[in-house]
Amino acid sequence: MKRSDINIRDPFVLVHGGKYYLYGTRGETCWGPADGFDVYVGDDLENWSEPVECFHNDGSFWADRNYWAPEVHVWQGGFYMFASFKREGVCRGTAVLKAASPLGPFRPHSEGCVTPPGWECLDGTLYISPEGKPYMAFCHEWVQAGDGEICALPLTDDLSAPAGEPFLLFRASEAPWCKVMKHSSGISGCVTDGPFFYRTENGTLLCLWASFSEGGYTEAVAVSDNGDITGRFVQAEPLFKDDGGHGMVFRGLDGQLYLTLHSPNSHLEERPVFYPIREEGGRLHRG
Measured between alpha carbons, how far is 176 from 80 in angstroms, rounded to an integer? Predict the structure, then answer.
């Protein structure tokens, strides 16, 4: 199938074994009951397989709605999916699943969510420090925090549980372009979505993340001042301000660096898009 036929949010690409594996939030079931995730397989970024269900809730999994933002990372020979889930009366959070193949089937690996149980959280992503220590960064949701936060916590070596307390990286309002939004519940605040880390060739650590500006959904970048997740993050110029976001960066099979995100940010119209990008002076630039 063609890229333009794929209705997903929060696209994530794993490049493995000479293939592209594309994961994302199912557009149709994003905002309500849900029961799984799909993966699309391709040799290029335009032509993809039909969706292969890589995780399915057979009725035994704890969450029944808002299956969001699956990311798949290779770690110590296994494939680990970080994804967000929700159930009535339980805070939204990120859980870790594991499989022997990028096609799945993924099965629960963590005991429930890895994010703090009393926090409304989403969009966990894996980060490995220069010393090889695993962390998970995630969003403390604006619907609870008011000013949305990007936080992180250390993980156990098998990625199954927290290994320490969460700490703050930055808040959404630190971006001067960030637009205050109003939730259907009446709460107003600034949104944080989709953290993803990328280290440039000169060692600069970038945190991609998403929020809203006057142009709509926006893909932003924050820069660590010490090259690690423990640094102070300073906001840089956004990568995309035209109603698209929740992106990540990957090196293509052709050697080109790409940014993928979903655009437009409208229910059932979301599509994965791919933009060539380049590094220059420890920053990312489109084109």
Answer: 35
Which among 82, 81, 72 has a CA at the least distance from the CA of 19? 72
Can you read off the two tokens belonging to residue 64? 């029944």
> Residues 226-232: contacts with CB within 8 Å, 24+ apart?
227/130, 227/199, 227/203, 228/129, 228/130, 229/127, 229/129, 229/135, 229/137, 229/152, 229/169, 229/197, 229/205, 231/205
The model's pLDDT over 180-221, given as tens digits with 9 standing for 90+, comes to: 998 877 788 999 999 999 999 999 999 999 999 999 999 999
Helix, strand, coil shares of the chain, percent, nearest 5, are 5, 55, 40
Reported as a single tens digit per residue, the pLDDT across 51-72 is: 999 999 999 999 999 999 999 9
Question: CB neighbours (10 Å) of residue 85?
Answer: 22
- What whole-number distance in Å separates Cα of residue 198 and Cα of residue 124? 15
User: Which residues have a Cβ under 8 Å from the Cβ of 60 and sit 6 or more positions away?
Assistant: none
Closest Cα to residue 257, out of 284, 235, 231, 276?
276
β-sheet with 134-140: strand ranges across: 121-128, 134-140, 149-154, 167-171
* Cβ atoms within 10 Å, residue 83: 25
Question: Residue 197 in contact with residue 137, Cβ under 8 Å?
Answer: yes
Question: How many other CB atoms are found less than 10 A from the CB of residue 109?
Answer: 19
Q: Is 104 left (phi over 0), alpha (psi -120 to 50) or beta?
A: left
Encode pLDDT of 113-166 as tens digits: 999 999 999 999 999 999 999 999 999 999 999 999 999 999 999 999 999 999
Is the bond preceding 264 in cis, omega lying within 30 degrees of 0? yes
Specify whether the CB–CB gap between 77 and 100 falls below 8 A.
no
**CB of 135 within 8 A of CB of 229?**
yes
Q: Which residues pair with 222 in a beta bridge?
A: 207, 235
Cis ω for the linkage preceding 33 (within 30 of 0) = no
